[in-house]
Amino acid sequence: MSTCQQCGIGNSPTRANCTTCGAAIPKAVAGEEAELSALWRIRFDLVEKAGGPTLPPLKKLRLGECFRLVCNFWALLFGPFYYLAKGMWRKALIAAFIGLPLMLLINVIAPHGELEQLKFAINMTINVWFAVHANVNYYKKVVLGDNGWW
């Protein structure tokens, strides 16, 4: 938490301005928060505007903001590898341990490719899950220090 030097209110370290008085907040001098790009700062501001990582009042956001918050193209494209690159390896491993046995089971049940559409659907479901949750999970990792399911 960064404390505003003007009003003393605690703010997320990703915010550029105080949520109460609007004064500029100095950047963190160390840690992962200091290395965030402008795009990630915008995404983190949207998470906070939506009410935090649980996103209860998502209706406060406009449609474009909702899309920006809940859709991550790179996570859709690369799935668990994107999570590994962002340092969220626990969630990437859990998804791999769920997805790989399902694919192996389908290969055992239908070794001649009769269920290729089912394999594709499972693969896309896993990647869409990563795309929808990537921004909030990265927020939890960087801001809240919560990096896993165990």
Using only C-alpha atoms, the radius of gyration works out to 19 Å
Q: What is the H-and-E element order?
A: EEHHHHHH
Count every beta strand, where a strand is a DSSP E run of 2 or more residues.
Answer: 2
Order of adjacent strands in the largest pleated sheet: 1-2
Shape: elongated
Structural classification: mainly alpha
Give me the number of helical elements: 6
Weakly predicted, low-confidence segments: none
Fraction of residues in H or I helices? 40-55%
Largest sheet report: 2 strands, antiparallel
Percent strand equals under 5%
Query: For this entry, what is the oligomeric state of its chains?
Result: single chain
Q: Into how many domains do the coordinates divide?
A: 1
Q: How many angstroms separate the termini?
A: 24 Å
Mean of residue pLDDT values: 82
Helices and strands, with pairings:
Layout: E1 2-3, E2 10-11, H1 38-49, H2 63-70, H3 73-78, H4 80-85, H5 89-109, H6 116-144
Antiparallel strand pairs: 1-2
Helix pairs in contact: 1-2, 5-6
